[in-house]
From TrEMBL:
<dbReference type="InterPro" id="IPR051954">
    <property type="entry name" value="tRNA_methyltransferase_THADA"/>
</dbReference>
<feature type="domain" description="DUF2428">
    <location>
        <begin position="30"/>
        <end position="285"/>
    </location>
</feature>
<dbReference type="GO" id="GO:0030488">
    <property type="term" value="P:tRNA methylation"/>
</dbReference>
<dbReference type="InterPro" id="IPR056842">
    <property type="entry name" value="THADA-like_TPR_C"/>
</dbReference>
<comment type="similarity">
    <text>Belongs to the THADA family.</text>
</comment>
<feature type="domain" description="tRNA (32-2'-O)-methyltransferase regulator THADA-like C-terminal TPR repeats region">
    <location>
        <begin position="287"/>
        <end position="457"/>
    </location>
</feature>
<dbReference type="Pfam" id="PF25151">
    <property type="entry name" value="TPR_Trm732_C"/>
</dbReference>
<dbReference type="InterPro" id="IPR019442">
    <property type="entry name" value="THADA/TRM732_DUF2428"/>
</dbReference>
<dbReference type="GO" id="GO:0005829">
    <property type="term" value="C:cytosol"/>
</dbReference>
<keyword id="KW-0819">tRNA processing</keyword>
<dbReference type="InterPro" id="IPR016024">
    <property type="entry name" value="ARM-type_fold"/>
</dbReference>
<protein>
    <submittedName>
        <fullName>Thyroid adenoma-associated protein</fullName>
    </submittedName>
</protein>
<dbReference type="Pfam" id="PF10350">
    <property type="entry name" value="DUF2428"/>
</dbReference>
């Protein structure tokens, strides 16, 4: 254990000399010089794993620091600590003193931890050092000796002194203050649970006070900072800036730690106020650190944000609950919002002055709006007590929601939702909509846009969550009555306003279709949407965009496309769980099948959809494809009366096929293929004629060779599975008619071969999980596995197809061992359905109940053996699987893992289980079909297994690799699998008598067995020893091997 930890420094020149020239200072000693020469030699020739020496030295250094810290932590947890003075005297008198570490050693150990944390910048070493320091401090704080407890207090004082030390530069802030937050967190976590905390409250209050100090001088320093902005940048900062950043970084780490959530909750409000105020700091470093601390506090106080639903998924609070839990925040937010809104009003009143966004927007406005937007609406209002009522902040937020800054309007409209309770929702929405209707001709577009944003946010968040359906109906009726008088807003005089107007109407349509007033409101909204959207989807507007690019007009046309397709939907299928329960109990009287719809002629619908999917703007085409995909996925039985359904039956496939050959945008191509595949799942035969299959296949092959996006490749392989059904149908008809030499026959064989090869590549364990899922889905959709029930390998014209089907079965078996649970279960259910009823009565598989995946794998081999057991090619496939198991383990190289070795791709895969299943089936088939051809096959593969086994075993003896392993090298996982698989393959193909007993194998091939004398180092494993002894023992011998089962995983 080191008692002195001298600071070691090594600049770049010294490091280069050490690594390349071998120059070492004489006073470092002969041993260090020898080490340097060895490193230089290894650097010239690279290391065995191909990494340069400096890379390995660097990795070894931080690994050494990490392991030393973990070792210290383990030692401190196990060894006895010094007791109090009286206890020591008593133990010395009794001769029972068990003290191993004295006070000086413990203090040295703690100083070492602090030195590492305060100097090292590597996150991995810092994290493990923090763990060791936590163990040390926890052990000391749990001691009954006051001297040990005071050590932690002294270390905290050292930390505080280091945090506020003078002459710090920006370099001290690297890696977010590096180990300073980790050192504080170690002390916080070390305090025993169930006892009053001392270190954490003291440190957090000190950190908050430290961060407050520079704020009083911000106004004075801001002018001087701006005056010197053009001077050369320097790493020095004014006194107090760097300690303030350290304080924020420590608070960020403390509030991020879930283990400290309860203890730090009392400081959350004060820290939040401090973080928001620090957004006004003139120093970038302070603002950045305050932003990180603000983010940690936001997650800790109101939970993580669900990006799709725009709400906090966990620990979400209503506005009323939030301010009652953190009462100090309400007056602070009210005061800050008043200042910020006054500043916004001043900037908007001076139109003649040049706009200055730094003066118009208060620095604390955006974080306040973000905080309020994360709150949920309260079911009840605050009552008469307005001191903590969130509704009192509503005037400030509404004033921000109508300002000239677009982002401020968006944030303010989102912040509005948590301030309005369900009791006051109808009143607030009515006031906003009435004010809009009465002043629509005089209000500026910024104000109109802000009012529409407020309506959308209140409808989307507050109105959707209402459980009172009658109140929701009244709100929808009142708003649509008012908005129908403002239809000119959607005419496009202001594109941003028109887009928001369409978004509000679209949301009202969704709410009305879910409620009990659909027959009254839905028709009005649909008619209004059709009227407004039609004028934005004309070809003339699309041509204008080719001349002048206007992002707001593109956004408007994109929203118009979404709204148009929303009107075509017969049913809105994305109901919430509450609405599904209400409908199941009949609490709503909406008959979705009888919803009123605007009459539209199929020809007009065809033209409009064709115009959207062929639009010149990419955004309109993508929006059209997304809406078509949503509607196709939501098709249900009984939807045949809908206008879109009647058109889609005959027109959708033709439009998509035409666009697939003309579309160049990768994202549009992806959605086209997605729609085609979803349509094929709804309707079994998406092709009108077989002549369309080959052009579609050729286009898929072309796209697969060009695209780089993985999601597009996934849907391409799924669409290829659609063609497989038609190719198999073509092959069957050609075989029955005797036209197996037809050109289409050969093209179909090549297509199936390419499909199987692609699926094999995508199902590799090294591929991403989504790619493997796509391979599984394509296997299910292709129905090629079902061809195994209709074919065998006896007919020559079938063998090429059967071989491909057989390969696909083995790929499916590999996927049944995939790490993804959902992939395994879905594929296992499909395979189980195929196997059901095809095996013998004693092996039948009932598909009414899901079977365990391992059992499905075993049944799959039994099914294949029953179908192709009399085909020699199937026996070769089984033997090759056994050989692949051994070769996989043999390819791992050295038994000892190196630093940069690749991890196993699939930890769920059981190679030995598949090997034993293959050997068991191979043994049954060889015994049942005992012919000269089978005997020649068995002898050939026996010799191959034996040769590979001799080469594998001899490789370790000849290469001189390290074969020292606990219990013998045969107990290593990879070696055991390889050796046992070779021996089991020899055993399965060894001659058996009529009773299935193994003949004396020594008399069959004594020369080959004599080569296995070098296997003795591997016989330390009992399973290898038993199987080897079972092969070489004399037939008359009787030993304990009679109870050994080579297929122990199957019994």
């Amino acid at each position: 254990m080191p008692y002195d930890m001298d600071e070691t420094t090594c600049d770049d020149d010294v490091a280069d000399a050490f690594l390349h020239d071998g120059v070492v200072q004489e006073e470092e000693g002969e041993e260090e010089a020898e080490l340097g020469r060895e490193l230089v030699e290894t650097d010239d020739s690279k290391e065995g794993n191909g990494k340069p020496a400096e890379h390995i030295v660097m990795v070894g250094c931080w690994l050494a620091m990490k392991e030393v810290s973990l070792l210290f932590g383990t030692i401190i947890r196990k060894v006895p600590l010094p007791s109090c003075a009286s206890s020591i005297a008593e133990e010395e008198q009794m001769g029972l003193c068990t003290e191993i570490l004295d006070l000086v050693q413990l203090e040295t150990m703690g100083n070492h931890f602090l030195q590492v944390l305060l100097k090292v910048k590597h996150n991995g070493a810092i994290d493990k050092t923090r763990a060791g320091f936590t163990a040390l401090c926890n052990r000391l704080l749990c001691s009954n000796d006051s001297r040990l407890c005071k050590m932690t207090e002294s270390w905290m004082e050292l930390l505080m002194e280091r945090t506020i030390s003078k002459e710090q530069t920006v370099d001290d802030l690297l890696r977010r203050s590096a180990g300073i937050p980790a050192a504080f967190i170690a002390l916080f976590l070390a305090e025993p649970e169930g006892t009053p905390k001392k270190l954490l409250p003291r440190a957090l209050q000190w950190l908050i006070d430290l961060a407050k100090k520079p704020l009083s001088n911000c106004a004075k320093l801001q002018s001087s900072i701006l005056d010197t902005s053009n001077k050369n940048l320097s790493k020095t900062r004014d006194e107090g800036v760097i300690p303030t950043v350290h304080a924020f970084n420590v608070m960020r780490a403390a509030f991020n730690d879930a283990n400290l959530a309860t203890d730090t909750s009392g400081f959350s409000a004060e820290a939040m106020i401090l973080s928001i105020r620090s957004f006004s700091s003139p120093y970038w470093e302070v603002r950045n650190a305050a932003t990180l601390a603000y983010t940690a506090l936001l997650r800790r106080m109101v939970g993580f944000l669900n990006v799709h639903k725009r709400e906090s998924a966990r620990r979400s609070l209503t506005g009323l609950e939030f301010f009652h839990r953190y009462p100090a925040l309400h007056p602070f937010l009210s005061e800050e919002l008043k200042i910020a809104t006054d500043l916004l009003n001043q900037s908007s009143s001076t139109h003649h002055a040049e706009p200055d966004i730094t003066k118009a927007i208060h620095p604390s406005l955006c974080p306040i709006l973000i905080l309020l937007s994360r709150l949920k609406p309260s079911p009840l209002s605050g009552g008469s007590d307005e001191t903590l009522d969130p509704f009192s902040l509503l005037p400030f937020i509404q004033r921000c929601a109508t300002q000239s800054n677009f982002k401020i309007r968006v944030l303010a409209s989102r912040a509005l939702t948590g301030l309005v309770s369900n009791e006051k929702l109808h009143e607030v929405i009515t006031n906003i909509s009435t004010y809009l209707a009465e002043n629509q001709m005089v209000l500026p577009f910024n104000t109109i846009h802000g009012l529409l944003l407020q309506l959308y946010s209140l409808l989307d968040s507050n109105c959707r969550s209402l459980t009172d359906l009658s109140k929701k109906d009244r709100i929808a009726s009142d708003i649509i009555r008012v908005l129908s008088t403002c239809s000119w807003l959607g005419n496009g005089m202001c594109h941003v306003v028109a887009s928001s107007y369409l978004r509000v109407l679209n949301l009202l349509l969704d709410i009305s279709q879910r409620s009990s007033i659909a027959s009254e409101v839905t028709a009005t909204v649909q008619a209004l949407l059709f009227e407004v959207t039609s004028q934005h989807l004309d070809r003339e507007i699309s041509k204008e965009l080719g001349i002048m690019h206007d992002p707001t007009l593109i956004e408007l046309r994109e929203q118009a496309t979404v709204s148009y397709f929303s009107c075509l939907s017969d049913e809105r299928c994305d109901f919430t769980n509450e609405e599904v329960q209400l409908r199941s109990f009949g609490l709503t009287n909406t008959n979705l099948a009888e919803m009123p719809q605007v009459e539209i002629h199929p020809t007009q619908l065809q033209e409009r959809i064709l115009s959207c999917v062929t639009d010149d703007t990419y955004e309109v085409r993508v929006a059209s494809m997304k809406q078509l995909l949503r509607m196709v996925n939501h098709f249900r039985p009984g939807d045949g009366k809908g206008v879109f359904y009647r058109w889609a039956i005959n027109g959708l496939q033709l439009i998509l096929m035409g666009r697939l050959y003309a579309e160049e945008n990768p994202k549009c191509v992806y959605y086209i293929l997605k729609i085609i595949f979803s349509w094929s799942l709804q309707f079994k035969d998406p092709f009108v004629a077989d002549s369309l299959v080959f052009p579609f296949w050729n286009r898929l092959v072309q796209l697969n060779s060009k695209v780089l996006r993985s999601k597009t490749k996934e849907i391409i392989i799924c669409c290829m599975s659609i063609c497989m059904k038609h190719f198999v149908k073509l092959l069957n008809s050609s075989i029955l008619s005797g036209a197996s030499v037809d050109v289409n026959f050969g093209m179909a064989i090549e297509a199936i071969n390419l499909f199987v090869n692609l699926v094999k590549g995508y199902s590799d364990p090294s591929q991403l999980v989504n790619m493997r899922r796509a391979a599984s889905e394509s296997i299910i959709a292709s129905s090629l596995l079902e061809e195994a029930t209709l074919r065998n390998g006896n007919k020559s014209e079938n063998r090429s197809v059967v071989k491909l089907v057989l390969d696909l079965w083995f790929i499916s078996i590999q996927l049944l061992e995939d790490e993804d649970v959902g992939l395994r279960l879905r594929l296992a259910k499909y395979v189980q359905k195929i196997i059901a009823g095809r095996l013998n009565n004693d092996l039948s598989c009932d598909d009414s109940m899901p079977t365990q995946v391992d059992k499905v794998i075993e049944l799959s081999f039994e099914f294949l053996s029953s179908q192709f057991g009399n085909w020699l090619e199937y026996l070769n496939c089984l033997a090759q699987r056994i050989l692949d198991t051994s070769n996989y383990s043999n390819s791992r190289g050295d038994l000892v893992r190196q630093i940069f070795d690749k991890e196993i791709d699939n930890h769920h895969e059981e190679k030995l289980l598949i090997c034993q299943i293959c050997c068991a089936n191979l043994e049954k088939l060889v015994v049942s079909y005992n012919s000269k051809e089978i005997q020649l096959f068995s002898e050939n593969w026996r010799r191959q297994f034996l040769q590979h086994l001799v080469l594998f075993v001899g490789g370790y003896a000849d290469s001189g690799r390290n074969v020292d392993w606990i219990g013998g090298i045969g107990n290593h996982k990879d070696v055991f699998i390889a050796v046992y698989a070779y021996l089991l393959g020899i055993y399965a193909l060894s001659p058996k008598d009529l009773t299935g007993q193994l003949n004396c194998i020594n008399k069959v091939y004594p020369s080959e067995l004599s080569e296995l004398s070098i296997i003795e180092p591997f016989l330390g494993n009992p399973l290898i020893f038993n199987l080897y002894s079972l092969l070489v023992r004399d037939q008359q011998e009787s030993s304990f091997l009679d109870g050994f089962d080579p297929y122990f995983l199957l019994r």
